[in-house]
Design goal:
The complex is a heterotrimer. By secondary structure, chain A is α+β, with helices and mostly antiparallel strands. Chain A is built from 9 helices and 20 strands. Chain C is mainly alpha-helical. In chain C, helix 2 packs across helix 11, helix 3 runs antiparallel to helix 8 and helix 6 packs across helix 8. Classes of the chains: A alpha+beta, B mainly alpha, C mainly alpha.
């Protein structure tokens, strides 16, 4: 579906199909948790499945791990068909949301557990455990039990354990879900550093867009058991392909209307909210008159007290509310049509927000390249 | 092809283990818990005989014909003889009143323990359960020494001069009530406690914040919320108490009629196995409703209240 | 969730005190009068330990006690194995045919009157003996089967509730790391639920040791258990020897309970210390 279009800017490499997911579906008691999903993951990539709870992302991850069997479809990992392989025969390891550290074993024993299952010689296991402890900087905690560790330390151990067997694919289930906000930002970067150093391919599941954008190379947005868009964080943010993605990631102003004129280098959209059709600096493939929406992010909208000089893309309104957020302020502007538009301005000057006040009559405007047309 | 093979192997070994894990307890319980009831049912339709085992076979096979001789006489006998009817009614009354007494005594205990500090809670809870880890027989025996005519209570009251004749407590319904409440109190307190301890104190605060007096809060919030605990506790006391043998035997004397004792006598003293079986089947029929009620709550508990 | 102590009324404390006096006064009286010189249990005639000597010289009681202890140990072991399996079935296997029947069979023995259980098992053994020649007679083996059958329900409750609390992702993590289901069970599940296995074992042990009614039905001529001996003695009236026996039993249970409490308390204290260590890092 639209995934191909969104991923198009990146060149296709031979390692592109390291993990291939073909037409995967999963039905629980008639409820379609995952519905006909197909995509592929590149070798060495950190790939995030992002969506609200109940969108099917966890089910998809559990099918990769082998805890759920797909109702239909196949999963290939480096050419190996995973169907029917129980979790203990898959070259895949997972870091659980709760970390699932074995409470009756020390840090060392936890990390060694997977290696012992492979019946490696004892000294090899010891060497590998030491290597892992060093990797996550937990050497001094080797003899501790999990309950004697803080949340961040537990996470490092869980990561070390899931990396100990050198998996072909690493799965992260809500990796930062159990940490408090301050620790989260620090650990996000640390986990990425470790994964990238080892070059391991990684699929993570999260409902936190900031986490996905910080950690992942590519993101798949999931909604109601299907993938609505795949792309790099920037692609997802700057070029959403549907109304759901656009409003799920960050905030957005959507103008509903119809396609008025469609050229190769530009198009215009007729909307009830603006007197003059919106002028967009890219073409769309569609018929004139079809319904579509124009999406523009609040920080890409400008505001002034005087009428801007440009021909298109401006409209008058009245400031209704101001949310002062410190580094920036968000202005809620009511247009004559009654539509509310959000405008985000950086507070580059101290006390600068004094420039605009509630009930001010203002003009808002944006560049031709600032927004995108959404047809889905 | 290989993956198909793998999937077959993985799923079949899992299925096999699944069957083994389920099958072993399943077969055990079928054989030693369910089948025995069918045999009791069968023998309740037989006639007593001087033989070993002491009853006739209800199935006879003669001249290539299988005949089933069902004898409803045992059941008719139970309803004709006032002894049995009285014993059933007596058991139900003893069990019901004892359950109520256990609830009245056990609820405040469980409630108070559930409101204390966690460390104190565990110690007190253990002290409630501790007596039931020692022998029931010995605990009932202790009451004989306390209640009998020259027992502690009578000796003490006579020493005080309150009475000059010993009170007859032993071998009366009172001693049986004391015995049942004493023996079954922990079974009431435990489910009540585990229910009450989960209650959110903030609910009570919310209720009093909205202007409810303490006793109103109790009646309108705590009591309704603890319904599952009350039912579980009541059934854990009521059902076994109906069939209780040791307590009426040791504390009740001949005047206290309870069906467990009658069954025991039919079986051991009269050696009338068919009547004993009929007594058991009727008791089971009476207890069906409470057992189903108990199972309903217990199964939900076992499976984790999903 | 309970957020610490709420206001506790005087009535509540009174109920607690009355309740504990009610529970413990009879047991205390047993203990005190076990040291009574007189044969008359309720009349104090000076301190003596002679009844303990008589108890230990009573061959019948001593043999029955030894028999009962062995029986209780075998019962508890089998019951713990069966109870663990049935707990796995109840908690982990959410869907299979015959599940409703299974939960009914595993909960009903909790409340089944003992006389019914005893009678029905006896009739089963007699009928089986007629049909297939087994069991030939009745004795320790039939009591063992009967005790396992009624104690497994209690063990199942204890282990099920622990298994429910266990984070299922621990088992998933083990499988994810390469352990198959059997190995996962023995290296992860079993160690984690082991406290429940111990409580279950002890519960089955005490239930078996305590049982009079079921054993009376299914025992044979050479398999008189301790409760049966005590019962026939108690029926004849009070005996200071039984007081001595009761005192020993109460002491053993109290010591076991105290050790259990002490271990828990130590573990809890260690846990609190660990939490402090972590937060002070």
């Amino acid at each position: 579906m639209t995934a191909a279009k969104a991923a198009a800017p990146s060149p296709v490499l031979p390692t592109d199909n390291y993990v291939t997911i073909n037409n995967i579906s999963k039905t629980f008691d008639g409820f379609r948790a995952v519905h006909d999903v197909s995509f592929s993951i590149r070798k060495g990539e950190i790939f995030a499945l992002l969506g609200a709870s109940g969108c099917g992302k966890s089910t998809l991850l559990r099918m990769l791990a082998g805890f759920e069997a797909p109702t239909a479809g196949t999963i290939l990992l480096d050419g190996l068909d995973l169907n029917g392989l129980p979790p203990y025969r898959r070259p895949i390891n997972m870091m659980f949301q709760s970390y699932a550290l074995f409470p009756h074993m020390t840090v060392e024993q936890n990390i060694a557990y997977g290696l012992k299952q492979d019946k490696l010689p004892k000294h090899e296991i010891n060497d590998r455990v030491q290597e892992m402890l060093k990797l996550v900087r937990m050497e001094t905690y080797a003899k501790r039990k999990p309950h004697q560790l803080s949340g961040g330390q537990q996470q490092r151990v869980a990561l070390a354990r899931s990396l100990s067997k050198g998996p072909k694919l690493l799965l992260l289930d809500e990796p930062m879900g159990a940490l408090d906000k301050k620790l989260r930002t620090q650990m996000q970067l640390e986990v990425v550093r470790i994964i990238e150093r080892l070059g391991v391919t990684c699929v993570m599941v999260t409902h936190d867009q900031e986490e996905a954008m910080t950690m992942a190379h590519r993101i798949a947005i999931m909604e109601a058991g299907q993938i609505s868009q795949i792309g790099t964080p920037a692609e997802i943010y700057e070029q959403p392909n549907c109304r759901y993605t656009a409003s799920f990631i960050g905030s957005v102003n959507l103008f509903e209307g119809t396609l008025d004129e469609d050229q190769i280098d530009h198009c215009t959209i007729k909307t009830a909210d603006l007197d003059v059709p919106i002028y967009v600096g890219h073409g769309v493939t569609g018929m004139t008159g079809m319904p579509c929406a124009f999406a523009v992010r609040p920080e890409k909208v400008s505001m002034s007290k005087t009428r801007p000089e440009q021909m298109h893309n401006h409209v008058a309104g009245i400031i209704q509310d101001i949310a002062y957020l410190g580094s920036e302020s968000v202005y809620h502007v009511r247009l004559q049509s009654g539509k509310m538009v959000q405008v985000e301005l950086v507070n580059a000057v101290r006390w600068g927000s004094e420039r605009f006040a509630a009930d001010d009559a203002v003009w808002i405007y944006w560049e031709d390249e600032s927004g995108v047309v959404l047809t889905a | 092809m290989k993956s198909l093979f793998n999937s077959l192997r993985a799923s079949s070994s899992f299925k096999g283990m699944h069957w083994l894990v389920t099958g072993f307890p399943y077969v055990w319980l079928l054989l030693f818990f369910v089948v025995p009831f069918l045999i009791v049912l069968k023998i309740s339709f037989a006639e007593a005989a001087i033989a070993m085992p002491p009853f006739t076979d209800i199935l006879s096979y003669a001249e290539q014909k299988l005949t089933i001789n069902l004898n409803f006489g045992n059941y008719a006998y139970l309803f004709e003889d006032a002894l049995y009817v009285d014993a059933y009614l007596g058991s139900l009354k003893f069990a019901a009143v004892s359950t109520l007494l256990c609830l009245l005594l056990g609820y405040p205990i469980a409630y108070t323990i559930a409101r204390l500090q966690p460390a104190v809670r565990n110690v007190l809870l253990m002290l409630v359960v501790l007596p039931s880890w020692t022998s029931l027989l010995i605990r009932v025996y202790a009451w004989v020494g306390i209640l009998k005519d020259n027992g502690f209570i009578n000796n003490f009251l006579m020493w005080l001069g309150v009475i000059d004749q010993p009170l007859q407590i032993m071998y009366t319904p009172v001693s049986v009530y004391i015995g049942i409440v004493y023996a079954y109190l922990p079974f009431m307190v435990l489910p009540l406690y585990s229910n009450l301890v989960k209650h959110d104190v903030r609910l009570l605060e919310a209720a009093s914040d909205l202007g409810a007096k303490p006793w109103m809060t109790f009646l309108t919030v705590t009591l309704p919320l603890s319904r599952a605990g009350i039912i579980a506790g009541a059934m854990l006391v009521f059902i076994p108490a109906v069939g209780e043998f040791v307590i009426p035997e040791l504390l009740g004397g001949p005047s206290v009629l309870m069906i467990g004792k009658i069954l025991w006598q039919e079986f051991f003293n009269n050696r009338d196995w068919p009547v004993a079986s009929a007594v058991a089947m009727v008791m089971l029929a009476i207890l069906t409703v409470p057992i189903v009620l108990f199972h309903h709550y217990q199964a939900r508990d076992l499976e984790g209240r999903r | 969730m309970n957020n610490g102590p709420a206001r506790i009324s005087k009535f509540s404390y009174a109920a607690l005190i009355v309740g504990f006096i009610f529970l413990y006064a009879p047991m205390l009286s047993l203990v005190i009068y076990s040291f009574n010189e007189s044969r008359l249990v309720t009349v104090w005639a000076g301190f003596s330990t002679k009844w303990y000597g008589e108890l230990f010289n009573d061959q019948q009681i001593m043999q029955a006690a030894w028999r009962s202890l062995q029986l209780a140990a075998f019962t508890a072991t089998a019951s713990t194995i069966l109870g663990t399996l049935s707990a796995i079935v109840i908690v982990r296997f959410k869907r299979f045919r015959g599940r409703t029947a299974f939960t009914a069979m595993i909960t009903a023995p909790l409340v089944m009157p003992e006389v019914i259980t005893g009678l029905s098992l006896l009739l089963l053994f007699v009928s089986l003996g007629q049909w297939i020649g087994w069991p030939e007679g009745r004795g320790m083996h039939t009591i063992w089967i009967a005790h396992v059958t009624f104690t497994v329900a209690f063990v199942n409750v204890v282990i099920s509730s622990r298994l429910q609390e266990m984070d299922i992702s621990l088992e998933e993590a083990a499988m994810d790391l390469g352990a198959n289901r059997v190995k996962t069970f023995f290296t992860i599940t079993l160690p984690i639920i082991s406290p429940a296995l111990i409580s279950g074992w002890l519960l089955a042990f005490t239930l078996s040791l305590d049982d009079l009614v079921v054993a009376s039905f299914v025992s044979g001529p050479s398999s008189t258990t301790l409760p049966m001996v005590v019962f026939s003695s108690v029926r004849l009236g009070l005996s200071p020897k039984i007081n001595a026996l009761a005192t020993i039993l109460i002491s053993l249970v109290s010591i076991a309970a105290f050790i259990g409490w002490w271990l828990m308390w130590r573990k809890e204290r260690q846990r609190l210390r660990d939490i402090q260590d972590i937060t002070s890092i």
